[in-house]
Amino acid sequence: MRKLVLICIVIPLAVFACGPGEPDGPLINEGKAEKTLPQTEVLTNSKLCEAKDPSRHLALAPAEGEFGHWAAARLTPPSYPFTVTAISYLAITGEGSECRTGLGHQVALYVGAQDKPTASPEGVILSVPAAAHARHFRQVILDLDTPVQLSEGQHLFVAVEMAGGPEAMLCLNMGCTGEGTPDRNYWSNAAAPPFDWATLDSFGFTQDISMSAVGYQGSPDLRPLCAGTWTGYRDIVMDGRDTRYRMEFEVSFPTETPLAPSIRMFNQELEDEHSRPITDTFSEISLEEDTLRFKIPREHEVITCALGHDASDGAYAGTCQSDQGEGAESLSAIRMVPPQGC
Q: Which of 215-219, 228-232, 287-291 has the highest mean pLDDT?
């Protein structure tokens, strides 16, 4: 009979407010604890904590005979492709419990299109070293040396080994809101494959495991764009005809990690004496099979562009479409030419 347990832990409010907050203990981050990833999105299966008593948290813990089993959460991106660069979760403890935050353990990352992991999943195994026991909780942040790309319909499963024994065990923080999402939290029922995954909800545990992933929309192969000032033009449809204007495109990469670039477009010449300088920031950038795709959100429209690669000069050129439909007075085409030496 299953003996997986939930432990109710009381934590002083002065130390742990509701939600992750600031970690009281070691930050496991592969030597990059200070790094902030710009242009990132956080995928999480746990809601923001809105409990009336935020000092009370539930800890997911293995029972006798279950040490070494795995607890997993399913994370789904808002759009595809999506590249995951880091994952995070909370090991938790409390006064009078056997939960120990400093235990060394393993983390497994699986990618799949089903709602739960397969019995013998293939993925990336990461090792989290032992650390000093944190008094209340330990936020584990793991940067991925090789980003994980999620294609259309795929999910990321983050599984944590519930290491330890009867006198000292790893416990994971559960969301302190009421109901969680039943098909996003799993227990392996085994220490090694083949696993017999079951939802925590099927055992009466309705809260979500507090796990998250950090990443960006787009694929990890965007380096061919190269940083610098690109030149080119944009075409604007006005009065039923196209008018061309010279543009500059600032392409930058926030870190050495293969993140999606930041691209901003500036006009070098104004349409008329009443025009103002225009700066557009591209969003949802992706580069697949030599096609650069992005969106340009504006106050009254969203423009979607697809630019093909010209091998002769390295430029990207193509058409754009406004969500206002055919015939809208809007940007219709873009050509970006890379700087010399790119």
A: 228-232
- 30, 32, 160, 336 from 128: Cα distances, Å: 9, 14, 10, 44
Pairwise CA distance, residues 9 & 170, whole Å: 14
Show the domain range for 235.
223-337
Quote the CA–CA distance of 115 and 299 in Å, as a whole number: 37
CATH number at residue 271: 2.40.128.120
What distance in Å separates the CA atoms of residue 196 and residue 194, rounded to the nearest whole number? 7
Residue 156: CB atoms within 10 A of its CB come to: 24
pLDDT of residue 249: 94
Mark whether 71 and 204 lie in a shared domain: yes
Which residues does 193 contact at the CB level (< 8 Å), separation at least 6?
A: 119, 120, 121
- 212 and 163 part of one domain: yes
Place of tokens 């543009």: 247
**HSE of 276 in the Cβ direction (CA atoms, 13 Å)?**
3
Condensed to tens digits (0 to 9), the pLDDT of residues 150-204 reads: 999 999 999 999 999 999 999 998 875 556 788 889 999 999 999 999 998 898 8
- 56 pLDDT more than 70: no
Give residue 2's pLDDT.
43
Beta bridge partners of 87: 142, 213
Tokens of 77: 């991106």
pLDDT, averaged across the chain: 77
Boundary-marking domain end, from 167, 197, 217: 217
Of 217, 244, 263, the residue that ends a domain is: 217
CA distance from start to end of the chain: 63
pLDDT band at 75 (very low <50, low <70, confident <90, very high): very high
Residues 267 and 204 placed together within one structural domain of the fold: no
Q: Which pLDDT score is estimated for 222? A: 57
Same domain, residue pair 133 and 78: yes
Under a CB-based contact definition with an 8 Å cutoff, are residues 136 and 90 in contact?
no
